[in-house]
Amino acid sequence: MNNLSPAELVLVKKACEITRDALNFCEKQIVPGITTKQLDNLVEKFIIESGGFPACKGYEGFPGAVCISVNEMVVHGIPSDSIVLQEGDIVSVDIVVKYKGYYGDGARTFPVGKISEDKAKLIEVTKQCFFEGIENLKVGHRLGEMSSAIQKYAESNGYSVVRELVGHGIGKNMHEPPNVPNYGKVTDGPIVTDNAVIAIEPMINMGRKEVWLLEDGWGVVTRDGKCSAHYENTVHITKDGIEIWTL
Ligand code: MF3
Ligand code: CO
Asked: Residue 65 CA: which ligand is closest?
């Protein structure tokens, strides 16, 4: 796990703060009728005006500034002029900001107008998965204690955990070791070290855990077509506890 200098941590934290502000800005722009491309353009402008760079843009050829995934799309949705948000949808927005060479990463699932109770519960449980996870994230313990807590909470609510996509270390790169799964056994994974920065990102499906990759090579959707939600924060792990930097 990474172990950045205090000066580097200042830059990661700043990247995280822009990410947090961009997520909050994005939430306010979501109305029925807006396209995901319009939303992408607004968030991109906000990030740049805040002094950051939208790091998904051009990452392995990704065409958007941020990832925007509607309903049964789990993650990595390409913003599009032809995807119009409708009342009752849920929309997951995943934002990575680069600031002076360092990264912050966060995601939220937002309601579009009024949504059904079952979609609202999925959003709430996915968020709570993250908090159940960090309750079990401790220096000197296995990372799997957190991963298994996330899985347990999701499954106890009748949902399933996506296996193909996981959280990650973050700092000088968008993706660094270790993998941070949202499933597994308490004995899995590395021992958690002091001063590490990781992105924890439960992706929780209302139905079955299996996913497909769309033909565009990016969008990941549930095979059963049921909704999925995403909640991600970048956190700094210390002996004294967990600081959530994108919240
Ligand atoms: N936030 C995503 C992650 O945690 C990154 C998406 S990269 C993109 O891995 F290229 F799809 F934008
Ligand atoms: Co991430």
From this structure: 1
* Domain contains 21: yes
Predicted TM-score of the model (pTM): 0.97
Q: Does 1 reside within a domain?
A: no
Ligand 1 atom closest to residue 94's alpha carbon, by position in its atom list: 1
**Residue at 170 is within a domain:** yes
Look at ligand 1, atom 12, and give the residue with the nearest C-alpha: 56
Cβ–ligand 1 contact at 230 (below 6 Å): no
Question: How many distinct structural domains can be found in the chain?
Answer: 1
Cross-strand partners of 170? none
Choosing from 19, 78, 92, 105 the residue with most ligand 1 atoms within 8 A of its CB, the one to mutate for a pocket test is 105
Range of the domain at 137: 6-244
**Which tokens hold the place of 222?**
């549930």
Other CB atoms within 10 Å distance of the CB of residue 28: 9
Task: Give the pLDDT confidence of 135-148 residue by residue, as tens digits.
Answer: 999 999 999 999 99
Is residue 29 within 8 A of residue 21, CB to CB? The reply is: no
- The per-residue pLDDT for range 108-138, each reduced to its tens digit, is 999 999 999 999 999 999 999 999 999 999 9
Find out whether the beta carbon of 40 lies less than 6 Å from any atom of ligand 1: no
How far apart are the C-alpha atoms of 198 and 210, rounded to whole Å? 25
Give residue-wise pLDDT tens across range 194-228.
999 999 999 999 999 999 999 999 999 999 999 99
C-alpha to C-alpha distance for 208 and 46, rounded to whole angstroms: 36
Q: Which atom of ligand 1 is nearest to the CA of 165?
A: 9
